[in-house]
Amino acid sequence: MPSPAIRYNAPMTIAESQLPQVTPQQQPTPYRFTREEYYRMGDLGIFHDKRVELIEGEIIYMPPMKDLHAVAIGLVGPILANAFPDFWVRNQLPLAVAKKSDPVPDFSVTPGNPRDYLGKPHPHTALLVIEIADSTLAFDRNTKASLYARAAVLDYWILNLRDRSLEVYRDPVTDPDAPLGHRYQSLATLHPPAIISPLAAPAAQIPVADLLP
Fold this sequence. Notes:
Blueprint: H1 35-43, E1 52-55, E2 58-61, H2 67-83, E3 87-91, E4 107-111, E5 128-133, H3 137-150, E6 155-160, E7 165-174, E8 182-190, E9 195-196, E10 206-207, H4 208-211
C-alpha cells in the first residue's frame, strides 16, 4: 500500500502587536555583587585561594602569575619605597574605588602608613597606581584605566612586559564613550632609557629600565 500522504501545516505568523509586551523590569539581567557580598564569599572560602578582583559587580579571576611578572614586582617595590618614603606603598592590596569594585592593583601609593587604616575601609583612591601587564594588557588599558580615572587616580602606570615599555596615563576626564564613563586624556609610552617622575614625588627620577625585568 502506498504510504499515506503527510500534510504539513504552514507556519503560523504572529504580528508583533499580538505578542505580550515585556517591560524592561522583566528582562533577564546579570546580578552584580556588592563589595560586602564579595567579602562574605571570600570568608566562606568560595574562591579557594584563587586570585580574584571585583570589577563593577563581576568577579574576575586573574591568570596565574608567571616569573616575569613576579620579578617585575620585586624590582618595582624597592624603587617606589625609595621614591615615597613617607607614604604607604601597597603591593597587591585592594582599593575600594566603588561600591561594586574592589580592584587589586600590583602597586598603589596612599598617604600615611598601614596603621592609619586599621579598622577603616580600604583606600578609595591613590596617588599612584601601577599595573604590571602581560596577558592582562587589554583589560588594564581599557576597563582598569576607566575605573581608575573614575576614582580620581591622577597618575596611572602600566608596566608593559610585552613591549618592554611604561605607559603613563594622566589627566582623568569624564567621557560617556569610555567603558565606565571616564578616561585619561594624556598617555605617554616610555622606553629605556627614558626617566619618569611620579606626579606626587616629582623629585624622584626613575629610569624605566630599572622597572623592567
